[in-house]
Design goal:
This protein is mainly β and 349 residues long. It has two helices and 22 strands. The chain is globular. It comes from Terribacillus halophilus.
């Protein structure tokens, strides 16, 4: 079985025919009503982030090579349509909605569809001194509605909470999330921890967050998924955006447990490495993050993930492309990609 990572989207190449997105990442892939959907965070030409979607035709099976279609405005095939309007200027998440996590569950016996996300109130993404918080969208009458307040906020130790990974399990909404004093800028060393908490309604009443990964572990994203009688936890770090030597390996790992436990010792002691970024293709050499695990229609496992392209010098890249009659990439300090791959079955058992 071919388990080589497959590139789906590259910020370097753009997203033709879409013109209003400069970057996208953090795919959350889920089969909904016999149709595969991908929710992702998109960086727009107004330099704000929002949440968007892409889909496969209804009934089409999931493979690693699917051609996803980004949802657009009616009659405007070149303009990606966000899930909801940009929050107003006074809103706590007005500058950015990132890192969506789709989940289905119940509240008071009624089915609920939600997307949890990271929100920010400052214009800059990295080196941000304004705290990140975690918010929630809920599907009502076939439309996404934004919960007006954050569902999780930072603490004195960690101003920012981000990267929510939520499942509905045994009647509880269970969230793994990252916490940090601030998102690292160039020259900073990441200081992320991962916590876990649960709630009856998934909006408040959260239990006291429990430390799952320490700063020494240096993990940022921890996405759980139940498959039959086993729980899998995809784990990654924050992505080494600037290719700095001080960062720990930016790979993708898989833990397993018989329960969705908030106790680290209940999961496998040593994770299975799925992808090693630094020895891989250029498009994911600077790190992997924002992943999710899917079971395709044949029962095989497929990982979707974000990554950061190997650091490039923009003038050289622009010159290279212009000489070949190609449009140069948008000037940026780093370039996101989105990819997927089949999981070696021996690593998932």
């Amino acid at each position: 079985m071919d388990t080589k990572p497959n590139l789906l989207y590259s910020m370097l190449d753009g997203y033709k025919p879409i013109r209003n997105l400069l970057g996208l990442g953090d795919p959350s892939v889920q089969k909904i009503d016999d149709q595969w959907w991908m929710f992702f965070g998109g960086f727009q030409r107004n330099f704000k982030n929002n949440l968007f979607s892409a889909s496969l035709p209804k009934g089409e099976p999931l493979t690693t090579a699917n051609a996803w279609r980004i949802s657009t405005y009616p009659g405007k095939p070149h303009k990606a349509m966000p899930l909801l309007p940009q929050p107003k200027e006074a809103a706590w998440d007005r500058y950015g909605l990132h890192e969506p996590c789709y989940v289905e569950g119940e509240v008071n016996g009624e089915p609920v569809r939600r997307i949890y996300y990271t929100g920010r109130s400052a214009s800059n993404v990295l080196g941000n001194e304004s705290p990140y918080s975690i918010g929630c969208l809920e599907m009502r009458h076939s439309r996404w509605f934004r919960h007006p307040k954050p569902v999780m906020v930072g603490t004195v130790r960690n101003d920012s909470v981000l990267a929510p990974k939520v499942i509905y399990d045994e009647g509880k909404w269970k969230m793994w999330f990252a916490a940090t004093p601030h998102e690292p800028g160039k020259g900073d060393i990441p200081m992320h921890e991962v916590y876990a908490a649960e709630s009856e309604n998934g909006l408040d009443t959260w239990t006291k967050p429990r430390l799952f990964f320490t700063r020494e572990d240096a993990f940022t994203h921890a996405k759980p998924k139940r498959i039959h009688d086993m729980y899998y936890l995809l784990v990654s770090r924050c992505g080494n955006a600037f290719g700095e030597d001080t960062y720990k390996p930016q790979d993708l790992w898989l833990f397993k447990s018989k329960t969705a436990s908030f106790t680290r010792a209940d999961w496998t002691e040593e994770p299975k490495p799925l992808i090693k970024a630094d020895i891989g293709d250029d498009w994911y050499q600077n790190g992997i993050f924002g992943s999710c695990l899917c079971v395709d229609d044949s029962g095989e496992l497929i990982v979707f993930f974000s990554a950061i392209n190997k650091s490039i010098y923009w003038l050289n890249e622009a010159s290279y492309r212009l000489k070949r009659g190609k449009k140069p990439p948008f000037p940026a300090p780093f370039y996101f990609t989105v990819g997927n791959m089949r999981v070696d079955e021996t690593k998932a058992k």
